[in-house]
Design a protein that fits this description.
Structural class of chain A: alpha+beta
Shape of chain B: elongated
Order of helices and strands of chain A: EHHHHHHEEHHEHHEHEEHEHHEHHHEEEE
Strand order of the largest sheet of chain B: 6-5-7
Shape of chain A: flat
Structural class of chain B: alpha/beta
Distance between the termini of chain A: 57 Å
Largest sheet of chain B: 3 strands, parallel
Strand content of chain B: 25-35%
Strand content of chain A: 5-15%
Helix content of chain B: 10-25%
Number of strands of chain B: 7
Order of helices and strands of chain B: EEEEEHEHE
Radius of gyration of chain B: 22 Å
Oligomer: heterodimer
Helix content of chain A: 25-40%
Low-confidence stretches of chain B: none
Number of helices of chain A: 17
Mean pLDDT of chain B: 92
Largest interface: A-B, 105 and 68 residues
Distance between the termini of chain B: 48 Å
Low-confidence stretches of chain A: 455-464
Number of helices of chain B: 2
Number of strands of chain A: 13
Largest sheet of chain A: 4 strands, mixed
């Protein structure tokens, strides 16, 4: 008999009905995490908040009262019907209202996906409109909704994108990852584009790259979230359970890596792509945790102090920081990450006090799962590196050299997806006069008094 | 196309696929639950519940802690409740292996082969 906290009673009962697996749940009060033994005892001795019956009476009844006919012969909820391709014709005003009231938008005005606009967007790829791109869901276990190239085009139109952006948006769709996976902890995401397409479609990788000053960055990041809402079937409170939600969900930190000003090899090349390939890399975590100035030693110090549910960190560093890391002697991002991991330690006693570690890692340690099992045996003053592998640390170079700073995120890299697969063979479909916002102002010679590279520094690959 | 002041637009919502995500297999990479390419999925199969016991007195009930923070402490309190209120019920606490999303067929086998009569799993959420 499963016990689930009362906060999720509707969620699990609905899910069980959908799956045709009726279960008798018991619902202790919420929350359980962080509660003292005395409070948990009260939960057990008290009532189920949903039924207002004594919890333990329900548990005993659940285990002993005979199954009903419906429980003996369960059937799944009927399969949802296929949706018509077109909505009923209506005025623009009414359609905008319909989209908003149905929860199909991100709360901002959208561009209505008329057949003409979608057809125009479809020119941004050679793939057939009815080709299935993928399936998505914001939860791990509910029904995945399927989407075609045409559906993705409708989303791209809604986001305000142009056909030249469509290959990147299709690559995001092909990842099948929602920008807003559902968790009570409120996930945040980042997407970094590498390769020639950044410049072809006018993405910003430099000054203010993460701020709303660039058309491509804005609409592509937005499209990922509109896809997550419509293909991931996100419904706040019903299956999207983020307690705060996250403002990163609006744009997902969409930008390009500043390959031109970086002394390191681009992120996608680290992941096995060629430099001339265009790729979008996805990251997943919870937050931007701080900004820092000062290099490897400070980075190591910062990440040793943050508790985390995972072990990953992604630093977003200005090109000046990359140059300084090179001047410190790190020939590659990987060398810097290795040093940071080895030097970001804290005493074991301090590590195990963290709520995340005590709550989750401790359970894994009890099961003998490494490295936690070994970490749990260390004396209190023994140093632990909370990030266990250099592969858990990422560095991406973004920014315009107005400040030698970096930001720390707890993001893990999830996957890198080819954009080129979705390009039309005849070349990107550009408007006759492509729409661009004002370019960030830079100094006359482009150097702004900053040396192009650190002394004796040449970009090297990890293989050197 | 606009006709009489009305527009026709495409429905942006994805189509039902009949494919649902599943819990991870025992040997799955724990991180696979977050990766739609790796997480097991498939069509639904209805499963009925196991038959119920006539009573719990004298039976063995496994208390399976699934890995959410606070679950182990909750199961410890549950065990103590049985000791105080139904001392003829033998309770056995077990941690489910892997993450909270991972199947543990060895544990289910243990429960069946070691004389387990029932199991309470928790605490989700």
């Amino acid at each position: 008999m499963p016990l689930v906290t009362a906060r999720f009673a509707d969620f699990v009962e609905r899910d069980a009905r959908t799956r045709g697996t009726p279960l008798r749940f018991g619902f202790p009060p919420y929350p359980v995490v962080g509660m003292s033994r005395a409070v948990l005892r009260q939960y057990i001795e008290g009532n189920d908040p949903i039924t207002v019956k004594p919890l333990m009476e329900e548990v005993i009844e659940g285990l002993t009262s005979p199954l009903t006919e419906g429980e003996k012969h369960p059937t799944p909820a009927p399969r949802k019907p296929q949706r018509p391709r077109l909505l009923a014709a209506d005025s623009a005003e009414n359609l905008h209202r319909q989209f908003m009231e149905n929860g199909w938008t991100d709360g901002l005005p959208i561009v209505l996906p008329t057949e003409n606009r979608v057809a125009e967007m479809l020119a941004g790829t050679d793939h057939a409109p009815d080709e299935i791109v993928g399936r998505m869901c914001v939860t791990t276990h509910q029904e995945r909704l399927e989407y075609t190239v045409e559906k993705v085009a409708a989303i791209a139109v809604m986001a305000g994108a142009r056909p030249e952006h469509f290959p990147v948006i299709l690559a995001l769709a092909a990842s099948q990852e929602p920008s807003m996976p559902s968790s009570t902890t409120s996930w945040g995401r980042m997407m970094i584009v590498n390769g020639p397409i950044r410049n072809e479609i006018g993405m910003n990788c430099g000054v203010a790259a993460l701020s709303p000053f660039n058309f491509a960055n804005s609409v592509i990041g937005r499209a990922w979230t509109l896809m997550s809402i419509n293909f991931g079937d996100a419904r706040a409170g019903e299956n999207f359970m983020a307690t705060f939600g996250h403002s990163l969900n609006y744009n997902n930190m969409c930008c390009g890596e500043n390959e031109e000003m970086s002394v390191f090899e681009p992120f996608h090349v680290q992941k096995g792509f060629r430099p001339d390939e265009s790729v979008v890399s996805l990251f997943r975590g919870w937050n931007v945790l701080n900004f820092g100035i000062g290099v490897a030693k400070e980075m190591a110090h910062v990440i040793s102090t943050f508790g985390s549910m995972g072990t990953s960190v992604t630093f977003v560093v200005d090109p000046l920081v990359a140059k300084n890391l090179r001047a410190e002697g790190f020939r590659t991002k990987q060398e810097a990450c290795k040093w940071i991991v080895e030097n970001s330690t804290l005493p074991a006693g301090h590590y195990w006090k963290g709520e995340m570690q005590a709550g989750f890692a401790a359970g894994l340690a009890k099961q003998g799962i490494e490295p936690f099992a070994s970490l749990a045996k260390l004396p209190k003053d023994a140093p632990i590196a909370p990030r266990h592998s250099p592969n858990d640390i990422n560095i991406v170079v973004v920014g315009g050299e107005t400040n030698p700073m970096w930001i720390t995120t707890d993001f893990a890299h999830t996957q890198s997806v080819s954009i080129d697969k979705w390009r039309p063979k005849g070349g990107l479909k550009r408007d006759a006069k492509p729409l661009r916002m004002p370019e960030p102002v830079i100094c006359k010679d482009g150097l702004c008094g900053i040396p192009e590279t650190a002394p004796n520094a040449e970009p090297v690959t990890a293989a050197d | 196309m606009e006709e009489n002041g009305k527009l026709t637009v495409l429905d942006p919502h994805g189509q039902p696929s009949g494919i649902f995500g599943r819990r991870l297999d025992a040997q799955s990479n724990p991180r696979a639950i977050l990766d739609p390419r790796e997480q097991p999925s498939g069509e639904l199969k209805s499963i009925s519940m196991a038959p119920r016991l006539a009573a719990l007195d004298g039976k063995t009930v496994y208390l399976v802690e699934t890995g959410f923070a606070g679950s182990f402490e909750f199961m410890q309190e549950l065990q103590e409740w049985f000791s105080r209120n139904m001392p003829s019920v033998k309770t056995v606490i077990r941690h489910k292996r892997g993450t909270m999303f991972t199947d543990d067929p060895e544990l289910w086998k243990e429960i069946k082969s070691s004389g387990g009569d029932a199991a309470i799993l928790g605490v989700g959420g």
